[in-house]
Amino acid sequence: MPDIHANGARFHVQRLAPESADGTRAPAVVFVHGLVMDNLSSFYYTLAGPTVGAGAHVILYDLRGHGRSERTPRGYSTSGGVADLCGLLDALGVTEPVYLVGNSYGGFIAARMAVSAPERVAGLVLIESVCVGASASAWIEDMVNTLTAKALSLEYNRLPERLRAAGRRKIARLAAQADALLNGTSLIEDLATERPLEAAELAEVGCPVLGVFGERSELAGGADDLRRYLPDCTIEIVPGLAHTVLREATAPLRDIVMEWLPRREIAG
Amino acid sequence: MSSVFDEVVCLLIEVVGEDFLLDTEITPDTSFNTDLALESIEFVALSEKLQDHYGARVNLVSFIGDMDVDGIMAITVGQLVAYIESQLAVRA
Fold it and tell me: What is the reported pTM?
């Protein structure tokens, strides 16, 4: 899959087709990863395989500025993320509604899309994501503070250079990417002006929603907010886990998502 | 060394760049994570290049289907080459 140009940027996209693809009109499943240190590989290695194995068409992409996608100076809000994803689907010729599976900030983008482009969304899976209520406000504030501190640290400690000098190529490159994203783009500024979805907006979401949270996650309040504002949603809590459900509880998460998606006739 | 091994090394160089690999002798025992320090997103890019090169016969998503992230990154070049060769033999 070549890079795809959409909404003014170049995106790294991976599409996986089921072996038995027969042209059925089953909705595609699009995976949306989290912020800064994340990229499409976190889903590629975990849920993408089982999903394509279940017969679905899978689309993974690196968010703007992440992974192998272009790092533009601006455009990192959830609204910008929705515009990017809509542009990507247009470029890929995907006109049918898709299932969105978002991890952390990727789930926030997915939920924003279900509100602002509901005709394009067949269903939502939100993994360790907050998007509405007090949990989302607190998460945004916490992320802005955390990322601002990280940006200062990267800039003043010259971490990428020091790691490179120590021969630690992989970590040096990740640090350099984080430095460029946090200190060279509007990401933190965009996040600081981000607002949670309004309760009234979320009430308009008509597609099925699955929320998955770690029992010990600091975002567990997000489960309560989803239940409060989306009473018809399905909530699953993974015992003993914190925020890193996708990486550390891949098997139970896969079972939860695979059990939920086919019920939505994902496999056509 | 097999032709598949040489082809994998060529594709690897396309992904990570020759400058880096000049410092590293790649053998079948070379691991993608420890020895090559390949980032997980680079392994995705390598997977794509392999599929472009060998076609649907080589399906890395199936190959790594039952592994966790750490297991995937611990794969050696030789294991990957052996998988590709087995797929090419089965479906030749």
Answer: 0.91
